[in-house]
């Protein structure tokens, strides 16, 4: 299938029964709300839409049709919430997936709860989605700031990075990542010497912030940002000759690809998916490559495929008409069913909506260690699913009874 913008933004049906049956079939509509024009378009964006479409195409529906719609939230919570509301009120959308921005995601979570729709955020990181802002309509699929802080931040603190200065994207994601990482740094006996918040979106020049971090004398400069912001920070730190260790707290495969191994070698990072991790991840990535040539998927894009597929399996099990009626009932059924796919293997969904699977601490390879395109990571440590995410009792999810 040729990868075109039209194919991404169009609609598609996935079924294997005669055309006459479609007239009577229930139609489920999946909406992928993502960043198509800003700093997160490479880590999510069009490839996330392609991944959702692949899940639909690969799923063998029994008695119902599936359509896909997509839109650009422009990294603006009001825009994202308005699109979600319009989808729910006028567009017949039953499930909203992806939403690679924590501020937008928190806004959309409120709309999904109000309209009783299924909400499957994959790209946003804030751990508040299963904490103080959790709702019965949300399953947070791929990773979160607690997981990232525990793995990358904790590993760096234990390895001698006992003083930190944070460069933080000034919105919900950056705040949550700084908060969660600070907790692990201090638990390891370290100290935070300072930090600065950078306007988001729109910041491209990080020189003054990097110089403040350099002047602090901190051993680690924690980058509580993502996408092109992280790429720009790493590039500019190298240009200024900054010698302190950079703590890339949310680094995606596409960021390493953009920077190159020469710039990223030795960088520690945490992912819950890597295209070359195992036979399943490789198989998924090869199938997606046929739709999106010359790329390998990020964990957010893999999560979009995985979450949409599990939703469709659940709708098939409970009946599409029943799934369409009640978002909370569908979410509860999704939680009750074990998850399994090529991207993440076997997993479960916790009562607060936290999708559980292992997390992996990787080190970026030296150029001499890489043997093929996109061969970027070597595995350092694995955190089991039951330990990777914040314990249920510590989250403060309001609908979970103590």
Query: What is the level 1 CATH name of the largest domain?
Result: Alpha Beta
Which percent band covers the strand fraction? 15-25%
Structural class: alpha/beta
CATH architecture of the largest domain: 3-Layer(aba) Sandwich
- By DSSP (H or I, 4+ residues per run), the number of helices equals 17
Question: How many domains make up the 3D coordinates?
Answer: 2
- In CATH terms, the superfamily of the largest domain is Response regulator
User: What is the CATH fold-level name of the largest domain?
Assistant: Rossmann fold
Record field, number of beta strands: 14
> For the report, how would you describe the main beta sheet?
4 strands, parallel
* Widest beta sheet: strand line-up: 2-1-3-4
Question: Portion of residues in helices?
Answer: 40-55%
Low-confidence stretches: 1-23
Global geometry:
globular
Q: Distance N terminus to C terminus?
A: 50 Å
Radius of gyration: 20 Å
Return the average pLDDT rounded to an integer.
93
Plain-language structure description:
The chain is α/β, with parallel strands linked by helices. The chain has 2 domains: 5-143 and 277-357, Response regulator (Rossmann fold); 146-266 and 359-388, Rossmann fold (3-Layer(aba) Sandwich). The chain contains 17 helices and 14 strands. The strands form 4 sheets. It has a 4-stranded parallel sheet with strand order 2-1-3-4, with helices on both faces. A 4-stranded parallel sheet has the order 6-5-7-8, with helices on both faces. A hairpin with a 3-residue loop joins strand 10 and strand 11 (345-349). Helix 3 (45-58) packs parallel to helix 13 and helix 13 (299-318) crosses helix 15. The longest helix is centred in the last third of the chain and has 20 residues, at 299-318. The termini are far apart.
């Amino acid at each position: 299938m040729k990868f075109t913008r039209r194919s991404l933004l169009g609609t598609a049906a996935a079924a294997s029964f005669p055309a006459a049956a479609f007239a009577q079939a229930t139609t489920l509509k999946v909406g992928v709300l993502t960043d198509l024009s800003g700093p997160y378009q490479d880590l999510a964006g069009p490839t996330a839409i392609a991944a959702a479409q692949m899940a639909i195409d690969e799923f063998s529906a029994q008695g119902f049709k599936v359509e896909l719609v997509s839109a650009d939230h422009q990294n603006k919570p009001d825009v994202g919430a308005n699109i979600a509301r319009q989808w729910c009120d006028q567009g017949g959308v039953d499930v909203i997936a992806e939403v690679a921005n924590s501020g937008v995601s928190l806004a959309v979570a409120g709309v999904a709860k109000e309209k009783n729709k299924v909400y499957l955020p994959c790209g946003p990181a804030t751990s508040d989605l299963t904490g103080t802002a959790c709702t019965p309509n949300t399953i947070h699929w791929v990773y979160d700031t607690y997981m990232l802080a525990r793995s990358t931040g904790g590993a760096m603190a234990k390895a001698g990075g006992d003083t930190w200065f944070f460069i933080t994207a000034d919105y919900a994601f950056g705040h949550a990542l700084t908060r969660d990482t600070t907790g692990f740094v201090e638990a390891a006996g370290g100290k935070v010497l300072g930090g600065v918040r950078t306007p988001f979106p729109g910041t491209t020049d990080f020189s003054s912030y990097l110089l403040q971090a350099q002047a602090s004398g901190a051993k680690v400069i924690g980058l509580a940002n993502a996408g092109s912001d992280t790429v720009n920070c790493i590039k500019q730190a190298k240009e200024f000759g900054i010698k302190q260790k950079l703590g890339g707290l949310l680094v995606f495969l596409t960021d390493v690809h953009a920077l190159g191994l020469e710039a990223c070698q030795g960088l520690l990072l945490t992912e819950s998916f890597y295209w070359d991790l195992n036979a399943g991840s490789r198989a998924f990535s090869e199938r997606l490559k046929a739709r999106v040539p010359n790329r390998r998927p990020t964990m957010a894009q893999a999560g979009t495929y995985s979450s949409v597929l599990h939703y469709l399996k659940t709708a098939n099990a409970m009946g599409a008409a029943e799934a369409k009626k009640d978002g909370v009932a569908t979410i509860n059924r999704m939680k009750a069913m074990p998850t399994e796919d090529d991207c993440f293997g076997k997993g479960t969904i916790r009562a607060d909506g936290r999708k559980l699977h292992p997390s992996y601490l990787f080190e970026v390879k030296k150029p001499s260690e890489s043997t093929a395109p996109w061969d970027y990571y070597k595995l350092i440590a694995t955190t089991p699913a039951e330990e990777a995410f914040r314990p249920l009792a510590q989250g403060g999810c309001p609908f979970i009874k103590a």
